[in-house]
Design goal:
By secondary structure, the protein is of the alpha/beta class. The protein is 33% helix and 16% strand. The chain contains six helices and six strands; from the N terminus they run αβαββαβαββαα.
């Protein structure tokens, strides 16, 4: 039995024309580096789209991407501040994003953001590779987590439903001067 909604989503993803892409990018500095090839491929394949990152992890984790063309906007909030979480939810609600890419979403916080992006197609990782999530039902187009692959390839797998067949896994990192000053303690 074919789910009509899922059929519409699949056809919409096979011929995408996304204008506003929201990306859940909450992660540490190591995963941020591993995430950059996915963002680079997203930018190459959707050059006209406005890409917005959504995160609550340390802002310093994103300094390596500052000044790049990997994203256009950044919605940052302190996850310990109820007010900032609320304001970030409001920004997501009014962001007019038509695609929300969600890397692994095992926590209720991301489930909340998915609900606030109700007009978007939700493309994201779901249970697999020994991991489970109670929020898999919120994802419209599911990309199973794979066991035993590097995070770079786990993130690049998110691009397959968008028709990006052979994404570029390599990344050149240009470290801006502010980030260079902050790497002394790493």
């Amino acid at each position: 039995r074919v789910n009509i909604r899922e059929k519409k989503i699949k056809s919409a993803l096979s011929t995408p024309d996304f204008k506003n892409i929201l990306v859940w990018s909450n992660m540490g500095i190591g995963n941020s580096i591993n995430f950059m090839p996915m963002l680079r491929n997203l930018r190459i394949n959707f050059p006209e789209a406005k890409i917005t990152l959504l995160a609550s992890s340390n802002k310093g984790n994103y300094e390596l991407m500052e000044g790049s063309n990997l994203y256009d906007n950044f919605i940052y909030f302190d996850k310990h501040s109820r007010l900032q979480k609320y304001l970030a939810c409001i920004k997501v609600l009014f962001s007019n994003c038509d695609l929300f890419i969600v890397k692994w979403h095992k926590n209720p916080l991301i489930a909340t953001f998915i609900k606030f992006a109700w007009r978007s197609k939700i493309l994201g990782h779901v249970s697999g590779g020994g991991w489970t999530s109670p929020y898999d039902h919120l994802v419209d187009f599911k990309v199973p987590m794979e066991d035993g692959i590097h995070d770079v390839h786990q993130y690049l797998n998110l691009l397959k439903p968008l028709g990006i067949k052979h994404p570029i896994a390599k990344q050149n990192i240009n470290i801006n001067s502010r980030a260079i000053k902050n790497v002394d303690n790493i």
